[in-house]
Amino acid sequence: MGTIVIFISIILVASILQTSTGFGFSIMATPFLLMIFHPHEAIQINIILTFVISVLLFRKIKSDIDYALLRRFILGSLAGVPFGIILFISINLNTFKLGVSILLLLLTLLLICKFKVKPTKFRDFIVGWISGLLTTSIGMAGPPLLLYFTGTDTEKRELRATTLAYYIFIYCVSLITQIIFTGTDKIIWQSSLYAMVIVILGLFIGQIIFHKLNQRTFRLFTYIILSCTGVYLLVDSLSTL
């Protein structure tokens, strides 16, 4: 019963964050799903549910998408996917957790320090490449996109829309790649199916929150999510060394 409550709580909070910010599901869900599932199960559940959320929201966000940028992200990610699956196959769980925690904390620090970057087509491709690599290796496509969008002062509606549209592609490709190279199992699909009702509730709540968030609150929300998740993972990984 305790495990079920934890699972429901993780999925609900992560779904709300994904809907209201465009990036929160993988950052919130993957680290905490590792408390319940093996790494490949946690990552594939995250991939399936993020894909579903993005598809369900597409009609609402399609008018805010930067399609030229989206194409460059997609092309870059295709080059990163193979490297990500190699990394996933060769890494152990503790190193996995430690790496994710450092990534999240570094990202938070750069955002707080008001990291700025000038967008270029080449940088768009590089961000897509890093995102593709991270998706197949740790199930997190969002961190490089979030840093890039924040560093270029992208408005929250465009950030959310372009990110969610990109997720439809990259998480579909990553799921297929994961299944081909690492397989899948019944518990992944059963857990994802059970989570769908919770995801729908999270979508409803997240839409309400999104319309009430101003740009400043949106950024503060981002810092809190990233730092709390990063600290939790760092403590957890160091405690098992």
From TrEMBL:
Cellular component, GO annotation: plasma membrane
Domain of life of the native organism: Bacteria
Membrane topology: Multi-pass membrane protein
Protein's UniProt name: Probable membrane transporter protein
Subcellular localization, as worded in the UniProt entry: Cell membrane
Keyword field: Cell membrane, Membrane, Transmembrane, Transmembrane helix, Transport
Residue ranges crossing the lipid bilayer per the database entry: 43-61, 73-90, 96-113, 125-149, 164-181, 193-211, 217-235
UniProt record similarity statement: Belongs to the 4-toluene sulfonate uptake permease (TSUP) (TC 2.A.102) family.
